[in-house]
């Protein structure tokens, strides 16, 4: 409750004595609780996304041992890869949906398709139905993820984001861990039915939440926007000031771009090209670390066998990965609060590159055919597991957070909905390509070459992006808007 304590100091009893002071503090608590409900809804969406991501690893192991279900290695790769492909389609649809229906209604209309997707997976008699369910689930994840980012950025004020956003970040990794752990006791069908249960709490939450002030203003409902701001801001003056900023942002975004909803070319406008370009680069760099393939196929990389011992080891590896993910999240929350974004990316890149080089060296020794190197790798069989866990830890401390954080902190408000749709689509499109081609790369080029290539690409991306990325640490959306407008004005001089 640091927020309430801070306001007690800044609005002491001399300014708000007696009953007025009490009413003022009660309003602060009410605001905190209302924004808390927004955060809970965001947590459910984040949980759904990570549960869908975490489903593959334990489910594939269960499918292999299911006597009433047949699946090949090639089909396994599709079960894992089609979810990001569906999310790609959903992300592209998210921008127009958000602009047409609003942030809240778009999320509300996803509840039924989400339930249907998990039900298809749970009741599928063959791989085709399971794949269809995964595609639909991915599409819902793609839309909901884009909407959640925009909704949170537009309704929670800057000074409270560091209180609420970390909660969502933790829940994101918790969802994957819950899927990994539940997969040790539930079959792949039971795990899918559990996905249905995950969706249900979203419905009552979305029914009571408001639309964002920015969308209300952009669609000509300024009075309602101000009414919403008055409910979720500390004072009337603060609500009116933010409404004025929203008016200016809407005017700046629409000036000369009356058809921006119908044309993606708006993202290439002078005031938008810089942030959109950085956002796209961050998404590309994030996925070319190979993280999605590692999440989906880490157990296969470390234990390629199909026997019961291999499946048991697969389960243990998945659970440990979930725990390390959660640990990395807590460390990243500390870093995001106190360190600049460029510094976090640099530290994350160093850990990722070091881990990938260790993996490349280990598998090079294993694949060399030399007896003494083979004996050494057998004695040090724990090395790739430790390197992989270090890789996941390093990823979560920087590259796992900053690309999405940049959308919230660094994207101009007048294109945030459309840009978020494109950036998240890029994220999922690359996730599909990486996850679908990773096993082929291992079989064609070998593990050592594959991991070495990821290390080199990560190092190059880190060097290039840090030179172009604007620092967003402790800057409000209005301040970042002005940064881009000033850059255009300076260029035009």
UniProtKB/TrEMBL annotation:
Cited Pfam families: Sugar_tr
Q: Where's it found, cell-wise?
A: Cell membrane
The record, for InterPro entries, names: MFS_dom, MFS_sugar_transport-like, MFS_trans_sf, MFS_Trehalose_Transporter, Sugar/inositol_transpt, Sugar_transporter_CS
Is Transmembrane helix found in the keyword set? yes
Which protein family is named in the record?
Answer: Belongs to the major facilitator superfamily. Sugar transporter (TC 2.A.1.1) family. Trehalose transporter subfamily.
Spell out the molecular function terms from Gene Ontology: transmembrane transporter activity
Q: What stretches pass through the bilayer?
A: 31-57, 77-98, 105-123, 129-151, 163-185, 191-209, 273-296, 316-336, 348-366, 386-408, 420-439, 445-466
Q: Print the keywords alphabetically.
A: Cell membrane, Membrane, Sugar transport, Transmembrane, Transmembrane helix, Transport
Membrane topology annotation: Multi-pass membrane protein
| Keyword Manganese part of the UniProt annotation | no
Domain Major facilitator superfamily (MFS) profile span(s) in chain numbering: 35-473
Origin superkingdom = Eukaryota
Where mainly located? membrane
PROSITE patterns given for it?
MFS (PS50850), SUGAR_TRANSPORT_2 (PS00217)
Protein's name according to its UniProt entry: Major facilitator superfamily (MFS) profile domain-containing protein
Signal peptide per UniProt: none
Q: Name one GO cellular component term.
A: plasma membrane
């Amino acid at each position: 409750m640091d927020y309430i304590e801070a306001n007690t100091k800044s609005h002491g009893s001399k300014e708000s004595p007696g009953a007025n002071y009490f009413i003022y503090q009660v309003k602060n608590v009410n605001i905190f609780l209302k924004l808390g409900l927004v955060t809970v809804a965001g947590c459910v969406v984040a949980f759904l996304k990570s549960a869908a991501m975490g489903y593959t690893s334990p489910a594939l192991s269960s499918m292999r041992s299911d006597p009433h279900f047949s699946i090949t290695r090639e089909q396994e790769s599709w079960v894992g890869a089609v979810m990001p492909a569906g999310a790609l389609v959903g992300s592209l649809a998210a921008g127009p949906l958000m602009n047409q229906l609003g942030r809240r209604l778009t999320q509300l209309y996803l509840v039924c398709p989400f339930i249907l997707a998990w039900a298809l997976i749970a009741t599928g008699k063959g791989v085709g139905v399971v794949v269809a369910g995964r595609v639909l689930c991915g599409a819902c994840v793609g839309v909901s993820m884009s909407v959640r980012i925009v909704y949170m950025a537009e309704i929670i004020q800057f000074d409270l984001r560091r209180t609420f956003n970390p909660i969502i970040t933790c829940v994101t990794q918790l969802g994957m861990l819950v899927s990994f752990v539940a997969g040790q006791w539930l079959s792949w069908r039971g795990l899918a039915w559990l996905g249905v249960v995950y969706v249900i709490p979203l419905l009552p939450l979305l029914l009571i939440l408001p639309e964002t002030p920015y969308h209300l203003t952009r669609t000509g409902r300024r009075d309602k926007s101000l009414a919403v701001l008055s409910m979720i801001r500390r004072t009337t003056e603060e609500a009116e000031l933010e409404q004025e900023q929203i008016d200016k942002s809407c005017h700046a975004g629409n000036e000369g771009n009356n058809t921006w909803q119908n044309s993606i070319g708006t993202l290439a406008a002078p005031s938008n090209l810089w942030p959109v370009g950085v956002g796209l680069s961050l998404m590309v760099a994030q996925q070319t670390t190979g993280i999605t393939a590692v999440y989906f196929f880490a157990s296969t990389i470390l234990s390629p066998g199909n026997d019961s011992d291999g499946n048991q080891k697969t389960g243990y590896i998945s659970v440990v990965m979930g725990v390390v993910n959660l640990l990395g999240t807590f460390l990243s929350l500390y870093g995001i609060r106190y360190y600049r974004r460029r510094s976090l990316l640099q530290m994350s890149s160093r850990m990722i590159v070091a881990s990938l080089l260790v993996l490349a060296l280990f598998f090079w020794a294993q694949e060399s055919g030399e007896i003494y190197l083979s004996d050494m790798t057998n004695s040090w069989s724990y090395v790739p597991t430790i390197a992989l866990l270090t890789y996941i830890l390093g990823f979560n401390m920087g590259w796992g957070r900053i690309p999405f954080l940049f959308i919230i902190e660094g994207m101009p408000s007048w294109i945030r909905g459309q840009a978020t749709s494109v950036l998240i689509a890029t994220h999922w499109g690359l996730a599909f390509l990486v996850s679908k081609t990773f096993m082929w790369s291992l079989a064609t080029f070998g593990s050592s070459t594959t991991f070495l290539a990821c290390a080199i690409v990560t190092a190059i991306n880190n060097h290039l992006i840090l030179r172009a990325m604007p620092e967003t640490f402790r800057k409000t959306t209005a301040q970042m808007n002005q940064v881009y407008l000033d850059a255009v004005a300076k260029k035009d001089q």
